[in-house]
Structures are given as structure tokens and as C-alpha cells.
Design goal:
By secondary structure, this protein is an alpha+beta fold. The strands form 4 sheets. It has a 5-stranded mixed sheet. A 3-stranded antiparallel sheet has the order 4-12-9. The chain is globular.
Length: 466
């Protein structure tokens, strides 16, 4: 009889084995002479530049090659064609999802997220999963999470110390992790929370080198790759235990968390009924990785930007007092614009297609550069300035369209948690500025951590009670 740990390890190793295949996931070779121009460096060097130095590399590529450029990536010298024109962004987001596969473009995340992740699925599988997940992120469900998020934010913020410099990124990471565990996973038992927090943190804090290493399965026996697998086994054990225990609950309909809603979700047209344990695990980890450090980074940048400008601070404090959620959401959106957490949105062509006037062969991965879309003067006036009012109707310029402000992607693959993220951002900013006046300490610049960008110095602030 196998133990729970042995059972979990078997499931984890099957996932790593199925999602760590080298050589481009069976995609056909792509003739390089049919692609837009790009650097001729070795693929490993281009991959390192794209992953570690994205904030310098994207602008350099745009200056040197124009609105379309190709980067070659390991493994397999796979081409990635990035575009910077809003018209092409719209074209990609509106394209046939049977030809423009998002899942294959995100395959590097497979070992951690799992093959059933909404980010890695395509075609009928993606449609089924999205249909089952969507009700948990709309309307009444979304409104019910607001109270839980506000409670978590209030507890976190109430423990801050006045007139002491601290890294707001660390505090926002702790807060958003608690939101994920309590609001998404529905974990309330403190003993289980103490077990899950470090396993989740180690999952999020992964060097890009680890991600690249999954393309070479032999590395999984060594050093940081082996430690990552061991942590994955432990996190999987905790998640599967939570799922299996929750399946026995008799009050799923009354529980407000996302996991309980997903367990109760069924589709009468689906022969499988609902989501299996493995599917639930993959979707929960996807929500964890997509909604934890991404939101924390955006919130910490928002605090830094507001805290450095007396007029913005006064406007934000007034918005909290007057219940002006539109302003708080605009602050959060502008933070995501000026400080993109992820650099691009990608799709892989399953058939030849014309994109941005280029006739591209099957196997090519394409996508808009979020970094360049958010930085261009033609998309955002005075793009280096932090101006939340650009997201308010009736301002001096039109509200940015979903083809130029693209932190959540777009089209049928737009992030399912976009509404949740915006709601969480508003509630956290309300809690912070309802309690404190915030002052920024020093300056900060972005650095790359796993697939996200975060403030290098931790977005340092000081607070004083109002």
C-alpha cells in the first residue's frame, strides 16, 4: 500500500516527465530566412538576454530592428517574433485560436503549472477548462471575495510600524500570498497555512535558469533542479490533501473560496462532469503563480509612485475618504502600465499565417511586447510619467484600449483573473491609504525574478498613521 507522499511523488514525477520534453515540443523546424530581422548571437545568449535583461533588450531590439524582430531561443533554436504595433496586437488577439496556440507558447511553465493549466491548454481542452472556471471569477462570486480580501489586507496593514523604512514588496508578497491561500485555496487552518507558506514561496522564487533547465531532463537529478522537484512534491502533497478533504465537505455551496466553487462546478455537456484532482491542482497552482507575485509587484510599485509625489498622495487619500474606487483602480492600472510585471504575450502558429504583413511558417511563436506597448509615446502620452488619470474617462486623452494596455493579454485568452486582480488592487490600496500616509524612500529599478519583474530594492517606503 502506497503512502500519501509516495502517491504524490508519483503524480509529480509524471507531470515533470510529460512537460519537460526537450526540442521544442515536437514543433516543426522554422526557416529563419522567412522571419523578421534580429540578432545573430547564439540562441543561449539571446535567451539569457530576453529573460534576464528584458527591460534593456526589448527597447534595444525595437530601436535596431523596428516594429517586428526575431529572437532565437533554447532549446532547439526556436524563433520568437515580437511585434510592437497596436494594430498587430489586435490582429494576434483576434486570430483563430485553433491556429494561434497560447498553450505551446507558455510551455516553459509546464513542469510547475501542469499540463491541465489554463495557460498551457489549447483548443477544446482550453474551452472546457475556461467554461468550468469562469463562473468563479464573475459577478456575485467576485463580489463575495471582496470582503475576504479586505479582511486579509486590514490585518496585514494594521501590523505596520510607523516611521520605519521597510520593503513594501515583502509586505505585499505576504499579503497577496495570504489572499491566495485563504480566498483562492480556502485554507483557514493556521497549522496548514504554516506548512503551505514556505512551499509556495519557494515555488514562486525560481531563477529563470531553473525554468530553462526543464528542457534538459537530466539536470533534474542535480542541485537546484532537484531541490525544486522536492519542493514541488511537498506543495503537491499539501494541495492534494486540501482538495481531497474538501471533496468530503457538505457545505461547498456556502463556502466563499475559489476551490470550493471549482469543486462544485459541473458542465452538463461534459462527459467528465467536473474537474479531476489533477486538473484542480494544476488550475490552483496557475492561479497561485499568476496572481501572487504579479499583483504584489504591481501594488508595491503603486505605493512607491504615489509615495514620491505629494499631489498624488493627497489625491489618493481623498479618493479613499470619498469612496472613489475609480481613482484607486486607475492607480493600480497605471502601476501595471509603467512597471510591466511580465514582458510579452505569446502564441505559437500551428499553421502558416500572415502576421503584421509577414508570412510566417508553422512553428513560429509570435506575440506583442508588453514592455514596448506600454512605453511608446504613440500609445501613451508622456509614457515615463506616472499618471493614473489617463485611465479615467473624461480626461485629456482617450482611455487606453485593450490593444495597448495589455498586462492581462487579450482576446479569448485574456487572463481569467483580471477582474479579481483589479478588485484586489483596489481593496489593498484602500486599506493602506485608509490607515496611513505613505512616503517613498530612495529610488528603485526593476529586476527579473523567475518570469516576473519586481522592484530591485524592494520598493522601500515609510508610513505614518493618518
Amino acid at each position: 500500500m502506497t503512502t500519501e507522499l509516495e502517491d504524490t511523488r508519483a503524480l509529480t514525477m509524471v507531470r515533470f516527465g510529460r512537460t519537460s520534453a526537450p526540442g521544442g515540443n515536437g514543433l516543426p523546424p522554422v526557416p529563419m530566412d522567412q522571419l523578421p530581422p534580429g540578432p545573430r548571437w547564439p540562441a543561449l545568449v539571446q535567451t539569457a538576454a530576453l529573460m534576464r535583461f528584458r527591460h534593456q533588450f526589448h527597447p534595444w531590439l525595437h530601436r535596431k530592428y523596428g516594429d517586428a524582430f526575431t529572437v532565437n531561443l533554447v532549446p532547439g533554436n526556436r524563433p520568437l517574433v515580437l511585434f510592437t504595433s497596436p494594430a498587430v496586437t489586435k490582429e494576434i488577439f483576434a486570430a483563430d485560436p485553433e491556429v494561434f496556440h497560447a498553450g505551446k507558447g507558455n510551455a516553459i511553465l509546464g513542469p510547475i503549472m501542469g499540463e491541465h493549466s489554463l495557460l498551457l491548454q489549447d483548443s477544446a481542452e482550453h474551452h472546457r477548462a475556461r467554461k468550468l472556471l469562469m463562473p468563479a471569477f464573475l459577478g456575485k462570486a467576485l463580489r463575495s471575495y471582496r470582503t475576504l480580501v479586505a479582511e486579509v489586507a486590514t490585518v496585514e496593514v494594521s501590523g505596520w510600524t510607523e516611521d520605519e523604512t521597510f520593503r513594501s514588496l515583502d509586505r505585499m508578497n505576504a499579503l497577496t500570498l495570504e489572499v491566495i491561500l485563504r480566498v483562492v485555496f480556502g485554507v483557514t487552518d493556521e497549522a496548514r497555512l504554516r506548512q503551505m507558506r514556505p512551499a509556495v514561496t519557494r515555488t514562486v522564487d525560481i531563477n529563470p535558469v531553473i525554468l530553462l533547465g526543464w528542457a534538459y531532463p537530466r539536470l533534474q537529478r542535480f542541485g537546484p533542479w532537484l531541490r525544486t522537484i522536492e519542493n514541488a512534491v511537498e506543495l503537491d502533497r499539501l494541495i492534494y490533501a486540501e482538495i481531497r478533504e474538501r471533496r468530503t465537505a457538505t457545505d461547498l455551496a456556502e463556502r466563499p473560496d475559489v476551490l470550493s466553487r471549482l469543486l462544485a462546478a459541473t458542465d452538463p455537456d461534459d462527459e467528465h462532469g467536473g474537474l479531476s484532482d489533477t486538473e484542480l491542482r494544476d488550475q490552483l497552482v496557475t492561479l497561485l503563480l499568476a496572481g501572487h507575485e504579479t499583483t504584489a509587484s504591481a501594488l508595491s510599485w503603486a505605493l512607491v509612485e504615489v509615495g514620491r509625489d505629494p499631489e498624488l498622495r493627497a489625491r489618493t487619500l481623498r479618493a479613499v475618504d470619498e469612496g472613489d474606487d475609480a481613482w484607486l483602480e486607475a492607480v493600480f492600472k497605471e502601476s501595471m502600465r509603467l512597471h510591466p510585471v511580465i514582458p510579452m504575450v505569446v502564441r505559437t502558429l500551428m499553421k502558416p499565417a500572415t502576421v503584421g504583413g509577414w508570412n510566417l511558417p508553422a512553428g513560429t511563436t509570435v506575440g506583442p511586447s508588453i514592455l514596448m506597448s506600454h512605453q511608446q509615446e504613440t500609445n501613451f502620452g508622456d509614457p515615463e510619467a506616472f499618471r493614473p488619470d489617463r485611465f479615467l474617462a473624461g480626461g485629456d486623452e482617450p482611455v487606453p484600449s485593450l490593444n495597448v494596455w495589455i498586462p492581462f493579454g487579450g482576446g479569448v485568452r485574456r487572463c481569467i483573473g483580471a477582474g479579481f486582480s483589479l478588485m484586489e488592487g483596489v481593496e489593498v490600496l484602500r486599506s493602506v491609504f485608509g490607515e496611513y500616509d505613505v512616503t517613498t524612500v530612495g529610488t528603485d529599478v526593476p529586476k527579473v525574478r523567475n518570469i516576473t519583474s519586481v522592484p530591485r530594492r524592494g520598493a522601500r517606503i515609510r508610513v505614518r498613521r493618518r
